[in-house]
């Protein structure tokens, strides 16, 4: 093969991220919106907010619709962004003072929207934490406790947001209610498997038909209910969200414009261009990261091999953390477990290289997007004095993979459409 496996996989990943560019997709979506009011306000929240805002503003200008104001909330400022809107910096993956301030600013700017204008709300993954502020009756520390408990529990994003939206100032449709505009157009870049708008970013502009008891039952089933603060549990049991028959939702349109399939297609096209035969798995990636990583490696070893074959998979796994867990993320944990299984397979794993990375460029609370591993990775880790099995057990995948030079570091990508697993069999 003319290209090394790591370079092949990195280029396929980069192509996947580029195909999930929220700027381009948002620009096209706003250009296709029906009749708009004589002016618009733009609100963008999430990891893709800078690109989405810039794309929306460009499209509105091309349509001759003045942008009178708005707000962009992200984890960091982007000097290259061209949206010209006010910016607030929130916190992620757990809220803090930045998130509380961003929520306050969002409330002020939203209230400034004119009743004869349209509001365009652009939502991407990470928005839940970035504008997280508690509703009356819940304190900031209690809300932070909920986020930390859920993130460590191994609960999937749907359950986490089913609980969190009931505690958030702008969750469960409450942002739509805070906008006095004529209409609300909500465009979403999805980081949730299945693309349920009510689950993505805790549904800031989406009516929720579930009842209080539904969230409690799901939390009990997942084993996290008793770990939530008492006052939080009492609130969840007694408070419902705005109902779907609220008049605001009649004039609110919600649409998912970007998801993980965009990244899959981009990666697949690049892999084909590089000469590989490509298989894109139709089932979404989900489940416990280490368990799924091990099973995936077993499937690769036992499956029928083709010359220069690339297998692409996308979705999102979970990790259940223990007290005093080390550094890492779900992609790194998947990769380390996969590497251990490939090593155990011996010669049968020759020629198999696996990339696992978040499309946002940040896996867990680390500076790595994920990792690239093969059957030799664990031996290299041991040569640096680290036991891979202990690292996996202690959720310390970052340091182990870093010692082997296996981490993939890209910096923030400006998008967020779940995780990519790209495998090369050569």
CATH superfamily of the largest domain: Glycerate kinase, MOFRL-like N-terminal domain
| CATH-defined architecture of the largest domain | 3-Layer(aba) Sandwich
Q: Kindly state the number of beta strands.
A: 12
User: Per the principal axes of the C-alpha atoms, what is the gross shape?
Assistant: globular
Total domain units: 2
Helix content range: 25-40%
Distance between the first and last residues' Cα: 8 Å
Specify the number of helices: 16
Q: Please list the strands of the largest sheet in the order they lie side by side.
A: 3-2-1-4-5-6
- What is the level 1 CATH name of the largest domain? Alpha Beta
Q: Tell me about the biggest sheet?
A: 6 strands, parallel
**In what range is the share of β-strand residues?**
15-25%
Helix/strand order? HHEHEEHEHHHHEHHEHEHEHEEHHHEE
Q: Characteristics of this structure?
A:
16% strand; alpha/beta; 6-stranded parallel β-sheet; 426 residues; Rossmann fold; 12 strands; 16 helices; 6-stranded mixed β-sheet; glycerate kinase, domain 1
In short:
39% of the residues lie in helices and 16% in strands.
Structure in words:
- This protein has 426 residues and is α/β, with parallel strands linked by helices.
- The chain has two domains: 5-14 and 261-425, MOFRL domain (glycerate kinase, domain 1, 3-Layer(aba) Sandwich); 33-258, Glycerate kinase, MOFRL-like N-terminal domain (Rossmann fold).
- Helices cover 39% and strands 16% of the residues.
- The chain has 16 helices and twelve strands.
- The strands form two sheets. Strands 3-2-1-4-5-6 form a six-stranded parallel sheet, with helices on both faces.
- Strand 1 (40-45), helix 3 and strand 2 form a beta-alpha-beta unit.
- Helix 1 crosses helix 11, helix 2 (22-31) packs parallel to helix 3 and helix 12 (289-302) runs parallel beside helix 13 (330-344).
- The protein is globular and about 70 Å long.
- It starts with a helix and ends with a strand.
- The relative contact order is 0.14.
- The mean pLDDT is 95.
């Amino acid at each position: 093969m003319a290209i090394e496996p790591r370079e092949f996989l990195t280029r396929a990943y980069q192509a996947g991220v580029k195909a999930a560019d929220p700027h381009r997709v948002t620009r096209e979506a706003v250009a296709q919106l029906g009749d708009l009011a004589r002016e618009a306000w733009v609100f963008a929240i999430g990891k893709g907010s800078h690109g989405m805002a810039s794309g929306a503003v460009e499209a509105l200008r091309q349509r001759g619709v003045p942008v009178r104001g708005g707000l962009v909330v992200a984890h960091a400022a982007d000097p290259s962004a061209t949206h010209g809107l006010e910016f607030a910096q929130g916190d992620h993956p757990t809220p803090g003072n930045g998130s509380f301030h961003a929520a306050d600013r969002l409330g002020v700017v939203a209230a400034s929207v004119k009743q004869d204008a349209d509001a365009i709300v652009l939502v991407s993954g990470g928005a839940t934490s970035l504008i997280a502020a508690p509703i009356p009756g819940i304190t900031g520390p209690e809300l932070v406790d909920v986020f930390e408990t859920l993130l460590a529990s191994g609960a999937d994003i749907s359950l986490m947001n089913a609980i969190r939206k009931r505690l958030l100032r702008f969750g469960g449709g409450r942002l739509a209610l805070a906008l006095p505009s004529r209409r609300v157009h909500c465009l979403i870049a999805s980081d949730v498997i299945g693309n349920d708008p009510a689950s993505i970013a805790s549904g800031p502009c989406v009516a929720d038909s579930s009842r209080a008891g539904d969230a409690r039952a799901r939390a009990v089933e997942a084993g996290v209910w008793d770990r939530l603060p008492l006052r939080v549990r009492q609130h969840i049991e007694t408070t419902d969200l705005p109902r779907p028959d609220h008049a605001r939702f009649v004039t609110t349109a919600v649409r998912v414009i970007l998801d993980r399939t965009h990244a899959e297609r981009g990666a697949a096209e690049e892999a084909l261009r590089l000469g590989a035969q490509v298989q894109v798995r139709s089932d979404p990636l989900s489940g416990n990261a280490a368990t799924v990583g091990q099973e995936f490696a077993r499937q690769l070893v036992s499956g029928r091999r083709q010359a220069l074959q690339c297998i692409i998979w996308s979705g999102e796994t979970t990790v259940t953390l223990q007290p005093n867990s080390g550094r890492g993320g779900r992609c790194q944990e998947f990769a380390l477990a996969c590497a251990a299984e490939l090593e155990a397979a011996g010669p049968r794993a020759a020629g198999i290289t696996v990339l696992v990375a978040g499309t946002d460029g940040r896996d867990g609370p680390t500076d790595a997007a994920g990792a690239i591993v093969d059957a030799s990775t664990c031996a290299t880790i041991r040569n640096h004095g680290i036991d891979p099995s202990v690292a996996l057990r202690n959720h310390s995948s970052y340091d182990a993979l870093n010692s082997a030079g296996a981490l993939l570091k890209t910096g923030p990508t400006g998008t967020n459409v779940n995780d990519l697993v790209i495998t090369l069999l050569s």
